[in-house]
Amino acid sequence: MNLEITELTARLLAHRWLPRTDSQIRRALVDEAFRAELESNLAAVGLQLLDNPFAEHVAVGLRDEVMDAVFGGRDYQASTMGLTRDEIALLVVIWALIILPKRERQLGRRSLDDDGQNDMFGQDKPIEHGESVSGAVSESSLLADFGAQLGGRTKIRNFALGKLARLGFIVRSNGYIHEGPLLDVLLDYRVMADRIINGTLADVLAAAGRALPAGMGEDDDELFDETDEDVDPLA
């Protein structure tokens, strides 16, 4: 067996996610034979590689055929990484506030400080990742806007946000919430974005003064890029 494949498989199992900039991950993303062998290794233990080209990290997740064997017969939280309903709702709100604007910037080939007005060749740029396109959410603003609906400010600040950080969905720093390594990998963008843009959460965000990114609506088919992974982590 290829030693490099063995090492990468072990690292993915140990860490759960790795950055796309990792040399072995980069090879897995461009070398078809290498990727196939890695996928075979992971499949042998019921896992698959989760790769979203817009995300800064890749991760491992359960294959569909073992979902029932792993989660069958257990309580509701077993299939949601131990998150309660309020915590899942909080996660969805944070995803909407960070990932939706981020994806709009990525598709427009724009950075956080670029309005795209002066770049004639923006669409020729590669997709950007990391802090250049992923914004942050103020904890105090989040608590003021959604604290009452999601279990109370104290519960969110002292428990829910800490749990989301430990799971790898967010990073907390100096009063701000940043994208964690799993936020844009484990949540299915095509399903989530459609439900948020055209669903109830759009009204909730609007009521809190949190407008969706400009131009996002029913006709924005480009935002649902066919290369996004169709993965439902919380099912």
UniProtKB/TrEMBL annotation:
Name of this protein: DUF4194 domain-containing protein
Organism whose genome encodes this protein: Uliginosibacterium paludis
Domain of life the protein comes from: Bacteria
Region (Disordered): 110-131
